[in-house]
Amino acid sequence: MSEEAFDDVTSLQARLAELRAEHRDLDDAIARLTGAPQDDELLLRRLKKRKLALKDRISMIERMLEPDEPA
To answer: Residues 23-40: what's their mean pLDDT?
Structure first.
């Protein structure tokens, strides 16, 4: 593996860790808001939409790091 490819993989792994942490934080925030007496539906929808977008990005990076093996 070339140094450039290694740097790309390392960068993707770091980004993946950041996205996973943000996803967990959003999960916590959504749980807190859902349990709050005054639910803010607009904020909840925005957080859930952001969480879903993060999940999609995480999946994309995971596929880039671990491509399907040829049959």
So the answer is: 87
Answering whether pTM is above 0.85, one says no
Euclidean distance between CA atoms 64 and 19, whole angstroms: 15
Length of the chain as a residue count: 71
What is the arithmetic mean of pLDDT over 32-54? 88
Rounded to the nearest 10 degrees, the angle between the axes of helix 3-35 and helix 41-65 is 160
Distance of CA 57 to the CA centre of its chain: 6
Non-local CB neighbours of 30 within 8 Å, separated by 6+ positions: 44, 47, 48, 51
Q: Which of 9, 24, 23 is nearest to 61 (CA)?
A: 9
Q: Which helix (H) or strand (E) holds 61?
A: helix 41-65
Residue 67 DSSP symbol: P
